[in-house]
Every structure is written in structure tokens, then in C-alpha cells.
Amino acid sequence: MKRMKLYEADDKMIDLIGDNYSMLQGLNAFGIHLGFGDKTVRKICDEQGVDCYTFLTVVNFLINGYAPKSTDDMISVKTLLDYLRASHRFFLDFQLPSIRKKLEESLNQKDSLSVLILRLYDEYAHDIRLHMKYEEKTLFPYVEALLRGEQKVDYNVDIFSKHHSDTKGKFHELKNIIIKYLPHDGLANNQLTATLYDIYNNEEWLCNHSNVEEVLFVPAIRILEQKLKNDDVSARISSIINKADSMESLSEREKEIIVCLVQGLSNKEIASQLFISVNTVITHRRNIFRKLQIHSLAGLTIYAIANNLIDKRCFTD
User: Using CB atoms within 10 A of its CB, is residue 58 exposed (0-12), middle (13-18) or buried (19+)?
Assistant: First the structure.
């Protein structure tokens, strides 16, 4: 039974599953264990360390197609990543081998058509395995790096999307062949029908999995990428401000020497005017260049004018 409604954090988890038993595997992928009594969704998520908002986003998307805006920044990328990775393990390690075994038991393997059907299943299973392994070797490590605050310059989620193959129809041809052409021998018809039902569910599961990636996961990664870019820009601006602050941390003596330099005085003339040694003048000049990152007379002049050390009218005709 499917109940078309938007589930909320204060709904009981048992009601959510009772209305939508297809979400049982989703619970496992989120790492939520059974035996939760009459507790609410929020209570269970809090107890089992699952981001409640992200869990409900996936649930409401899979149950009734409700998708958040692509700018929704409340979705936890880490929670989605863990969910998708666990879903891969379920499908590759359990679901595919389980259906393969059921097919073997329900087909007459002495029949050449049955052998070809098993071979076709193996080809599809291989394609899906490659698809998921590609995600695990490329996208998932990239997302983990983003979560650590690292961003690659040669890769982004749009590159992944461009090379992301579709798995939605992998079993479509297989089930049609079984329905249309497999000879009926009257021995294992019930078992074959049950297996065929599993294949249909498998196809729906793959479609849902792919949709979660495309509609929820990819936009969430884009938001994370943009956030890191914004943080990088903020860090650069902060660095510039800090450098500017260091420029303003000149001593009064250093400011006096800047004025002398702008006026064209030599080290010896500056030393004589300020009653200090030439070596002291040289040391002050070195510190000025280091603090301001300015190494030309024109640059020092601009700095002196901008900071009101000298009157710019002195340089006008």
C-alpha cells in the first residue's frame, strides 16, 4: 500500500513504513535499524545519527515524486553519499546474486533459450556493476574531498553528469524476452513468475536510485562546490584585508622614512635629517618593503598619497 502524502519529522516511523513497505530497504541504506517501536521519524534519526531532513527528502521524493528546489542547501551531502554507497552494496552484493540464483532455479538450464537468458542477465548485471563502480571510483572520492574542504580544478559534478550512463532500462529487454518467448514447461512456472516480479522490482529500484542521484545528489554537490568557491573567495579577500592591515602597521619612524624617500633623499641624507645611522635607514627600508610589498619609488609615492603621508599637490604642476 502506498499512501500519497508528505511525511514529516513528527510522524511515526511505523506509519511511514506501514504505508510504504518499499522504504524498508531505504531504512537499511540510511543505517536505520528496525525495532523502533512507536517513535517519531525525528526521534529515530536523532538516536541513530541520521540527518532527519535529508532522510525525509529522500522518502518524500521516492514515495510521491516531491523534489526540493535545486538551491536547497539543507540537504546533507554526507548523508546522501552514505545512503548511495550503502545502496550500491545492497544491490551489488545481495540483490543481483539473489535474482541470478532464482533465475537458475526457475529455468530449465538444458534449454538453449534459458542459457541465453542467463547470459543476458549476466551481461546486464555486469553493465550495472561497472556503472556503480565508476561512481565509487570517481564521484564518491571527489565528494569526500569536497566535504574535507578540498576542490579539484580539473573535475566537477557536471563532468560526472556528462559521462553518467543510464541504468534505468537495463532489465527492460530481459523481462520482455522472458514474458514473450520462454517456452512453458509447466514445472517451475510459479517460481519463474516470482522471479520475474523481482526483476520488475529491480528495474523500479534502479530507476529510483538513478533519480535520487540526478535530482537530489548532483544538485546538492553543485551547492557544495559553489560554497567552497565562495569560501575561497572570502579567504582571498580576508588575506588581502590582512595584508592591507599589515601595510598600516608601519611605525612612525618608517612613515618618516617613506616621506624622505618620496622626496628623493638618499640613505645618507635621510640618516642626517633624522639623526640616525645609515644602517638603521637601510633596515627601516627593508622592513617597509616587506610590509608593503612595494619595491618602487612610484609605488611608495602612491602609498604615501593614499595614506595622507604627503600632499598630492606637491606632485602637480
Answer: buried
CA distances from 256 to 237, 261, 272 (A): 29, 9, 13
Q: Backbone phi, then psi, for 12, in 5-degree steps?
A: -75, 140
- Judge residue 315's burial from the number of C-beta atoms within 10 Å of its C-beta, 0-12 exposed, 13-18 middle, 19 or more buried: exposed
Measured distance CA(144)–CA(121) in Å, rounded:
33
Q: Measuring CA to CA, which residue among 230, 79, 237, 217 is closest to residue 151? A: 230
Helix (H) or strand (E) holding 99: helix 96-106
| Residues ≥6 apart with Cβ < 8 Å to 3 | 19, 20, 63
Question: How many Å apart are CA 51 and CA 48, to the nearest integer?
Answer: 9
Helix (H, G, I), strand (E, B) or coil at 40: strand
Per-residue confidence of the chain (317 residues) as pLDDT tens digits? 455 689 999 999 999 999 988 898 889 999 999 999 999 999 999 999 999 999 999 999 999 899 888 888 999 999 999 999 999 999 999 999 999 999 888 887 777 888 888 899 999 999 999 999 999 999 999 999 999 988 887 888 888 887 776 666 677 888 888 888 776 655 557 888 888 899 998 888 988 999 999 999 999 999 999 888 887 766 665 655 555 555 557 888 999 999 999 999 999 999 999 989 999 999 999 888 888 888 888 888 888 888 888 876 665 55
Please state, in angstroms and rounded to a whole number, the distance separating the CA atoms of residues 202 and 121: 12
Q: Is the pTM of this model over 0.85?
A: no
